[in-house]
Amino acid sequence: MKVTVPIPVKKVYEMKGPKRVQEILKELGLPYESVIVIYQQDLLTPDAVVPDDAEIEVRPAISGGEA
Amino acid sequence: MKCTKCGGKAVVPIKRHNAAFCAEHFFEYFENQVERAIKEHRMFRRGDKILVAVSGGKDSLAVWDVLLRMGYEAHGLYIDLGIGEYSQRSKEKVLKFAEQRGATLRVVSIEEEFGLGTPEFARKAGRPACSACGLNKRYLFNREALRGGYDVIVTGHNLDDEAATLLGNILNWNVGYLARQSPVLEATAPNLVKKAKPLYRLTEREIASYCVLRGIDYIVEECPMAKGAKSIEYKYLLNQLEELSPGAKARFFFGFLEKGRPHFEAEQEKVEVRPCQVCGQPTTAEVCAHCRMLQRVGAAAAP
Ligand code: SF4
Ligand SMILES: [Zn+2]
Ligand SMILES: [Zn+2]
Fold first, then answer.
1. With contact defined as beta carbons under 8 Å apart, do A7 and B221 qualify?
2. B105 by DSSP, 3-state: which?
3. Residue A37, min C-alpha distance to chain B (Å)
4. Which of residues 11-30 of A touch B (CB under 8 A)?
5. What pTM, to 2 d.p., does this model score?
6. Which residue has its alpha carbon closest to ligand 1 atom 3?
7. Which domains does chain B have, with CATH numbers?
8. What pLDDT, in 10s, does the model give residues A17-64?
9. Are the C-beta atoms of residues A34 and B205 closer than 8 Å to each other?
10. Which of B3, B14, B253, B265 could form a disulfide with B22 if both were Cys (CB 3.0 to 4.6 A apart)?
11. What was the ipTM of the complex prediction?
12. CA of B217: which chain A residue's CA is closest?
């Protein structure tokens, strides 16, 4: 599967599926509290299993600076 | 994972409430949290004129969206900060959002107001970008709200913002800030408009989820000036705590509001506030910090 993390610098990872969202995040070192996981314009929960042929986006939800 | 309310497929789990929601029930939860924030802190009432400070990011567009849906008279204020392509892209998002909803949007530009974009302006002012930018924004929000006759300025500050600010203020024991940090800042002086943060009960993940589920197209990239901001590190630390102990952020901030802040407030010395001799906005000095900064940059203050 293809996993895109758009910020701080856009990165694309290749991973072997099927795999749980939880494990994908663990490999990326991103806590679930600080991201959203988007698949076909819908959101995936940590227990969701992502098939090998999927493309997902793991989008950090944290922003900084004096907002 | 199943929705706690209807048993359908859940899309947003919320551990601190021991819940998970489908899109429909998540929207209901989201509005309830906003409603509760507004009521508990008497932020504004139906019929009040509300000015929402919008940046094009998830928080400000989400709060604008939810207030419009709840039937409030909420107009947007976008400040073009003149930060290269980032500003251009964020402005496009805001314009599109307003157009799709037929919402009223006011736009002001730092370059038109003060002659320089934020990066050059900050360099001339001899201040870190976010400090100069923060002063400019605060000044313009207040000025535009006064000009337009608004009752309240709304910002998109969320639970993570507030918890990170609180952590920073405690680590440095900024007692003055601890006395003032609040979801609502009353108009305590003439020419000062009340400020409110209706999203303070919601986390960044919940707000980003709201935007995606509502189809709100926000700017995902960060302001390039935000790099290395302390607040981001604090937020990561707090989220690690949250994973260990769901609800930690909410207990930290809500507990402070209930049990901590009153002490700092009581200790605070009364400072005398008067109108700035140049711009008329409230200050503790003769000339306010913003006007002094403009003098330093050599830009003229628009009265
Ligand atoms: S990150 Fe700093 S420079 Fe960028 S918009 Fe926020 S306050 Fe302004
Ligand atoms: Zn449901
Ligand atoms: Zn002034």
1. yes
2. strand
3. 9
4. none
5. 0.95
6. B130
7. 44-270 (3.40.50.620)
8. 899 999 999 999 998 999 999 999 899 999 999 999 999 999 999 887
9. yes
10. B3
11. 0.95
12. A41
